[in-house]
Design brief:
Elements lengths: L1 H15 L5 E5 L1 H15 L1 H8 L8 E7 L5 E7 L3 E16 L4 E18 L6 E17 L7 H33 L8 E3 L3 E4 L7 E2 L4 E5 L2 E4 L4 E2 L19 E6 H9 L7 E3 L12 H5 L4 H5 L6 E7 L4 E5 L2 E14 L8 E19 L2 E19 L10 H20 L3 E2 L12 E5 L2 E6 L3
Helix pairs in contact: 2-4, 3-4
Length: 449
Amino acid sequence: MLWILFLALCGLLTHTRADPGALLRLGMDVMNHEVQSAMDESHILEKMAADAGMKPIKGITNVKVKDVQLPVITLNFIPGVGIFQCVSTGMTITGKSFMGGNMEIIVVLNITATNRLLQDEETGLPMFKSEGCEIILVSVKTNLPSNMLPKVVNKFLDSTLHKVLPSMMCPAIDAVLVYVNKKWANLNAPMPVGQMGSVKYVLMSIPTTTASYIQVDFSPVVQQQEGNTIQLADDGEVFEFPEDYAEGSSQLLLSATFLTAELALLQKSLDVYVQDTKIGQLPPQTTKTLAAFIPKVAKAYPNPKPLMSQIRINKPPKVTMKTGNSHLHLHGTLEMFAARRRGKASVSLFLLETHFNLKIQYSVHENRLQMVTSLDRLLSLSRKSSSIGAFNEKKLTDFITDYLREAYVPVVNDVLQVGFPLPDFLDMDYNLAELDLVENALVLKLKLN
C-alpha cells in the first residue's frame, strides 16, 4: 500500500513540475571564444610573469620571466561536471644560478584543470570553479653545458620547477574564470519591457553538461509594472531542440508559452480607439460605406456620418508556433460608432465579438527580440449587440477583415516595437543570430563575431 502511494505521489510531482520557458545550449564554439577572450583581456600570463621575480626560487636569485608564449587553449566537456581545460604555453626563466653565472631555463608546459560548473548559492547564477590544477612539463632546456653535472642539474630543475610553477601558473586558471563568471553577472537582473513590466531569466537548476554542450534551463519571471507576476501557461506543449544542429554549435530556445506571457504585458496597449475617416487604402469610413454591407444603416442614417471604432482585446494574446510559421491569436470586441455633431456623444451601431490571428515575423535588433505582424485571417465574428436591429454579421467579414488589416495591425506593430529582452550573458551579440521556427518554440542559432 505504501509503495502504491509512493508511486502516485511521484507521478503527481512529475506531472506538476514546471517546464522551462527558455533553454540555452552552449557549444564549444562559445566556450572557446569566452575562455580565450578572458585570457586575452586579463593578460594574466604576463601578470604572472611580472610577479614571478617576487617569488624566491631555491638555487636561483634575481629571478625574471620573459618571452611568455601566446597560450593555446584546449577545452573538452566533461559530462555531469563541467569543462576540462588545458593551456599550453612557454616562457624563459632567467637569474643567477647556484653554480654561479647567468642561467636561462626555457620551459614549455601545459596547465590543466577541471572547471566545475556550479550555481552560486547567493546569486543563483552559473559559475565555474577550478579544481585539480596541474603543471605538466613538456620540455626544459638550459644554457648550462650538458656535461656539467647533468644529474645534479636535471634533479635541481625538475624538483625546483615542480615546486614553483604550480604556485606561479595555476592562479592564471582562477583569474580567467573570474573574468568568465563576471559575464554571467547580469543574467538574472530584471530587464524592462517598455513601461509595462519586466522579464527576468532565472535558472531552474544547476546547468547540466553533456559531451557536446552545456544546457541552462530558465524559468523566466514575467512581471507587470504593478508587481503582479504573469504565470507561464501549463498547457502540456512539448518543445525541444531539433537534432540537426551542427556539433559544437550554440542555440537559445524560447517557448511559445514564454512569448505568450511576455505579450500579456502589452495587452492593455492593444486596445485602440480609431477616429480617422481616412485609413490606408480603405474607402472613406462613413455610414454610407457601411450601408453597402448592412442596408439598415442607410435607413438609420440617410445623411452619411463619420465612423469610429473601439477595439478591445479581452483575453490574453496567445502565440502559437509550428515549423516555419508563427501566429498571434487575439480575442476581443470591435464596436462601431456613428459620430454626431460636436458636443454630442457618438452612437454605438453594433458590438461584435472577434477572434483573428496575425502572422508573426521575428528578428533581433539591438539584442532585443522584435516582432512584426500581418493579418492572417478573421477566424470568427459574432454579433453581441446592435442599435440598428438584427443583421447577418457574416456579411461584414470582408469589411472587418480589411478594417483590421488597415486600421488595427499598424497599431499592433507600433506596440510591438518595444521589443523583448534576451538573456544577458557572456556579452552575447544576438544581432548575429539566425532564427528558426520549430514546434512550439523559436530557436536563435547563436553566432560569434
